[in-house]
Amino acid sequence: MTERVQVESFGTVIGAEVKGVDFANPSAQDFAAVRSALDAHGVVVLRVPGMQPPQHVRLAEGLAPLQPLFYGQFTLPGTPALTIVSNIRENGQHIGLADAGMLWHTDGSYNRCPDFYSLLHGLEIPQQDGQPIGDTAFTSAVHAFQALPADMRARLTQLTCTHSFEFHIEKKRSKGQLKRPPLTAQQKADLPDVVQPVVRRHPNTGLPCLFVSEGHTSKINGLAQQESDELLEFLWAHLRQPRFQYRHKWRSGDLVIWDNIAVQHLAIFDYGDQPRRMHRIGTLGPVPVPWAEQLAQATT
Ligand SMILES: [Fe+2]
User: Fold this and answer.
1) Domain membership flag for residue 1
2) How many domains in the chain?
3) 3-state class of 88 per DSSP?
């Protein structure tokens, strides 16, 4: 790590501020320092006042290849890799995704190759009594897994689950949270359900990460529906415990980068119609490797 870059933990099990990154002209050492901080802390915050969309794209590309977008109607004109996340309407139309992150999730887990890092740039932050609202909460999939009883960890390691974008949209719709049109037949065909390991191996740290989410996991495969539902409800409640969390209070000009393999996240919708505007870029991760394969290799 370069001496110029400093990493300061927030004192929670995940989350740190990274200072000294030259976001306008990042070096290989800057990227290495950010990746290293992400491996150690799962979520990092950078202050990037005045950062422009091309610089945002460059930072993302320096960390990992970009994730191809499938839901492109809210991309920033001229910057197709960048999605606008906002509740703002212009001429009666939303200018960005207005319902992103209402359930705990990891980005793109319904893809064969889910997102690795997400980079969210806060531009317009709602406030109440002089304090920012519209926080983003993060929880550690690593610490949550480690805190489970040994017999449950062993059982989960042998299981697979289904991640489903259609399930996600239907769940939001049933809760009255959906602020986008229903999926078209083509979108459903483009995003079939995928089978994922319940516990995956982190490609950098080698640690086991719990990989079921309230937003996207429709079932544990091989279990009766009721047993699957009960196990998922238990795991989601376990993951939601404050002891595994960091909650980010946004300042305009924050860039929050998180590792979707190591942490889950949730957007807090507590700001009503106050305008909120963010820019998001996602990067492409590997095919998830079951933790069970790691264990098998270790014993052969
Ligand atoms: Fe998200």
Assistant:
1) no
2) 1
3) coil
pLDDT tens by residue, 101-110: 889 999 999 9
* Cα of 43 from ligand 1 centre, angstroms: 13
> For residue 162, what are the CA distances in angstroms to 108, 197, 250?
13, 9, 33
| 162-177 average pLDDT score | 85
Dist. CA 105 → ligand 1 center (Å): 6
Q: Do the domain assignments include residue 266?
A: yes
Interval 258-287: pLDDT, tens: 999 999 999 999 999 999 999 999 999 999
CB contact burial 143-158 (16+ within 10 A = b; e otherwise): bbbeebeeeebeebbe
How far does residue 297's CA lie from ligand 1's centre (Å)? 33
Tell whether the model's pLDDT for residue 1 goes beyond 60.
no
- Ligand 1 center to 106 CA (angstroms): 6
Report the separation in Å between the CA atom of 296 and the middle of ligand 1, taken as the mean of its atom positions: 32
CATH of the domain at 204: 3.60.130.10
Ligand 1 mean position, distance from CA 265 (Å) = 6
Give the separation between CA 16 and CA 10, rounded to whole angstroms: 5
pLDDT at residue 42, rounded to an integer: 98
Q: What separation in Å is there between the alpha carbon of 245 and the centre of ligand 1?
A: 16
Distance 3 CA to ligand 1 centre (A): 32
- What is the average pLDDT score of the chain? 93
